[in-house]
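User: quick one, sequence for these tokens?
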């Protein structure tokens, strides 16, 4: 598809999207199976920050949706493909991806399980980013299927204390996801929340690796700071997105 035709298509989609209501549109994706816990709360805080900056927002709980990752159909890579940066698979995720295609800000959140984001996070990232990415390169950069920079971010929460992150090589492992978002959408950053309070009642679980009292004390002191950082992130991303209009 010619760039001019693509831009016309995107503009038409934006005009039809009443939900945007002439405001910047920010979407937040919860890739945690637990609603109301750390990742969800961090995303809600980021969402509040985006709204404070004047954006229309939407938060999607990905575990409520049944969908696979990329199926390697390569419909998005065909000559003269008409997918317009949206995954061609027609399932329950498709309408969400169509809305994400209109967004000015995209924030993904996931807890860390065995050193990686959840499987649902990875499946969503494949479906979100791969159709926008292009195998055609110019000046050593992919000719991505978007008309402007989309501000993106990852929010990662973890039971792991901050001083263990280097030990487990988390920065390298997790920042690769942020690098993918930056390559595809033009900008990205990462926010971490470490040493999170994991259980509602620690006495029910067979464990001696963590001290519940220390965990609770850290939550009470640090998690409000993490939430404030998430709120600032949401606001900052919307303000940066304004410069790309």
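Assistant:
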């Amino acid at each position: 598809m010619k760039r001019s035709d693509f831009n016309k298509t995107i503009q038409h989609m934006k005009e039809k999207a009443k939900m945007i209501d002439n405001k910047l549109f920010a979407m937040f994706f919860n890739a945690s199976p637990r609603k109301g816990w750390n990742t969800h709360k961090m995303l809600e805080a980021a969402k509040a920050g985006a709204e404070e900056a004047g954006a229309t927002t939407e938060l999607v709980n990905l575990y409520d949706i049944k969908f696979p990752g990329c199926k390697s159909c390569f419909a998005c890579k065909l000559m003269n493909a008409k997918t317009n940066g949206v995954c061609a698979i027609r399932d329950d995720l498709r309408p969400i991806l169509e809305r994400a295609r209109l967004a000015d800000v995209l924030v993904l959140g996931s807890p860390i399980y065995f050193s990686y984001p959840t499987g649902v996070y990875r499946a969503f990232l494949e479906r979100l980013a791969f159709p926008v990415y292009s195998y055609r390169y110019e000046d050593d950069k992919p000719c991505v299927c978007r008309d402007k920079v989309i501000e993106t971010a990852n929010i990662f929460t973890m039971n792991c204390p901050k001083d263990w992150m280097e030990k487990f090589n988390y920065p390298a492992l997790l920042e690769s996801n942020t690098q993918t978002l930056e390559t595809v959408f033009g900008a990205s950053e990462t926010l971490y929340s470490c040493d999170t309070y994991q259980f509602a009642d620690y006495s029910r679980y067979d464990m001696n690796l963590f001290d519940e009292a220390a965990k609770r004390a850290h939550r009470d002191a640090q998690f409000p700071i993490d939430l404030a950082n998430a709120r600032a992130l949401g606001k900052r991303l919307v303000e940066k997105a304004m410069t790309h209009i």
